[in-house]
Amino acid sequence: MAISSSSKLLVLHFLFALYLCQSPARADTTAFIHSRAAYYPNSDQQGTSDGACGYKTFGATLNGGDVSAASNLYRNGVGCGACYQVRCTGNSLCSPNGVTIVITDQGASGNTDFILSQHAFSKMGLTADAGASLLSLGVVDIEYRRISCSWPNKNITFKIDEASNFPGYLAFLIEYQQGAKDITAVQICETVNLTCKLLNRSYGTVWTANPPPSGPLLIKMLVSGDEDGDETWLVPINTIPENWKAGDSYDSGVQLN
Prior knowledge:
Immunoglobulin-like, 15% helix, alpha+beta, Barwin-like endoglucanases, 2 domains, elongated
């Protein structure tokens, strides 16, 4: 039996509505907050390689260099790695989409919430010329909202800090954290007897164990909840190997939504 054109139209409307319900882009419905933003005056146009989050050179080039220092949003390091949509306002030079940035440092200037890399600051412009004109202003009015970070084909990764000294002192960073939730606490666990202990946040996203347990190590992360506030422990599939090395990175095998 032939399907009428009106029936086809109803099916198309249903499929489109279903797509909208499933689209991850619709998860970012947080209201925009008004503030101000400045930028780093460095010549390479990227972020700083010695930021307060502890990312070092990785923090300067993360997200294609679209990174930022934050003041209140730093939240004693909890805010490190969080993603925000930032767009300038009240100026014909401004793009309606703005730029997506990652927090990699702490800082404030002129009552700002963000100190963007030059690369990120200029991307708030409609065009390259508009971005250059924005840079000449130095500080602009903005609005921002937190959005989900997306790191395709990446799991949460533990980067062993160069300051670590096997076997007596372990410091590591948490990198490539997706979603819009926070990691508020970390436990380190022995894999033989499964005893765990809470770690200290040294600074930023750097966690330390002095001394760490021996053997392969399991790192459990306490993840903030949604509006209900419930927190859950995220347990990786993979462990940090027994003979870990400073400077090495280890894939956790898990990721946040």
